[in-house]
Amino acid sequence: MSTPRLLLLSSSAVHGHGYLEYAATDINIFLNKNRVSTVLFIPYASADYDSYLKKVEAVFSKWGYQVEGIHKHNPVEAVANAEAIFIGGGNTFLLLKTLYDKNLIKPIRQRILNDGVPYIGSSAGTNVAAPTIHNTNDMPIVYPPSFKALNLIPFNINPHYLDPDNNSTHKGETREERILQYHGLPSEYDVFNVLGLREGCTLFIDGQVGILKGINNARLFIRGKPPKEIAVGTDLSHLLTDTLRTEKKLTP
What we know:
252 residues, alpha/beta, four-stranded mixed β-sheet, 11 strands, globular
């Protein structure tokens, strides 16, 4: 198995920044290091593929990269020939269902884990890099055949993680409470650790090395332990080990 190379963004749009702007340096370093000239873009988290492709092309072309929309080609062949893969944000359920419908789960996983093809995910594209999409914030507007995703990393991610607003009158569960409810499921369920990525967070992974990048801190949830604040620059390589993979391997 090759060394997986991943750049997982909480979101593409951050307040005060243009599309992908906050992560521009990290994206360019990531692609240049891996000698990428053409990026295969997968727009399946949206219903309007062409408009989404144009939006991505406008940014990547300024950086000197060519972008190919997977919907313009045979999708399995496009993945087989990809130099790098970028899956954008949108609705996670729609994205995962389409990946299953087009028989792309296994090919994408093989290219990344076996061939070392660089992978960039944003929001929904970051959700599907995890073992499951259990911690997405999206509405289930369609029904994928499984909530199991690409399983490129051994923990789940909650993009767009929000902190409680002490000035709000809203009485519904906070994001932290919902993740803790997830971790309270009984032992017959597979429950994964969760990394909450606030807006502006980016997780860089190179093999067994993981580092939090971006402009905001993250929030880490390991079952049976208090949530932990993670500062930008923190080494998160320990999350990539099998010993922290599922609820069944964690102390209740």
